[in-house]
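Okay, can you check this protein?
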Amino acid sequence: MSEEYIVRGTWGGGVVEFSNGDVFVKVISFPVTDDSGYGGESMWVLLDEGNEFEGVGVLDNDPHHSDIQCGARIKFTGGNTHYKPHFVEVVAGTQ
């Protein structure tokens, strides 16, 4: 069994594609539901549909300031080569 490796992108750059085809996208502006004072939380999403700029994927983070749970399917949009996409809505609960 071979270990997966990054074929495109960097963690710091906000998009990482692995040799098995999995694409992880850093999505910004998840709603903050605690009293931390943060304007939004950024989290990694495993892409399911679309591309790294606009799509649907599975949240692959344990949120610290949001009540959206790891495993929830979320919609994101508004990304481009200069800006990370932002959270739009939860489209389904945890898988």
User: Anything to note?
Assistant: Strands lie at 6-10, 15-18, 23-30, 41-50, 55-59, 72-77, 86-94. The mean pLDDT is 93. The chain has no helices and seven strands. The chain has one domain: 6-94.
